[in-house]
Give the backbone structure.
Amino acid sequence: MPQRDVVSWTVLIMGYKNSRKYDHALIAFEQMQYVGVVSNCVTMVNALAVCASFGALEIGVWIHDFIKRSEWELDVILGTALINMYGKCGRIEEGLGVFRSMKEKNVFTWNVLIKGLALAKSGEEAICWFNRMELEGFKADEVTLVGVLCACSHSGLMITGRQIFGSVIVGKYGFSPSVKHFACMIDLFACAGYLEDAFKFIREMPFELMKAMWGSLLAGSRARGNLEFSEFAAWKLVKLDPENCAYYVVLSNLYAEMGRWIDVEKVRIMMKERGLKKDLGCSSIELEPQEHVYELLLPH
């Protein structure tokens, strides 16, 4: 193209973003600045989304500074994109500053704030903002409740999590709990060591089981030294993700702890037959319950 205007550059950045080629999107954004094409609000919203997905905090901060220098109005779309970027890049305090400065907010704005607090393991603060959201007349949706329940899980807020999930069950929010809500509760129980409750949720859940659920049970069982539940969950993960060597290593380590050396050898043979090699990163794998629930906060 002989001439590339702001629309051309923005469409290019959006295309890379939608195909998850985040590094290419950021390169295009930087090239756009280099050749002197001035970004518009649509450009910045998409660039911020890329920064959020790629963890490009430095560029995200530059965009925020650009918005301030240009004296743009921080509307609901741009403000929400900034909060989302700060939350996913681990700088939720800056995100809160943006939130407080916004004149207009919608449910998406509240959702990214609560999600960011959940990722930062600031569970009690997330619950406070959730309560404030309801007081200000905003209706929580399914995404809101996933964020809130994840926040409870990360911070060990068992009673609060049970109460909120119970409210979803009885229809307080106008929808039935989804598979993600059940997954959050399984993670909450597993983190707190209530393994029987977590397993009961898994057995009674009216959905196809997600890998994150078995991951939560495995991590919680390992943390509590429950070898029986650990073995059961590890085998489920092997069946769900047979190419992941980490789960075979966990199984092998479990059997070694139990003195079941024949089973250790069987796992080793299974890995060999499936063409899997024990990576250096797998040899010292330590799973934490919360790491499995992070995927519940990702958009699908």
Q: What stands out?
A: The radius of gyration is 22 Å. Residues 86 and 94 are 6 Å apart (CA to CA).
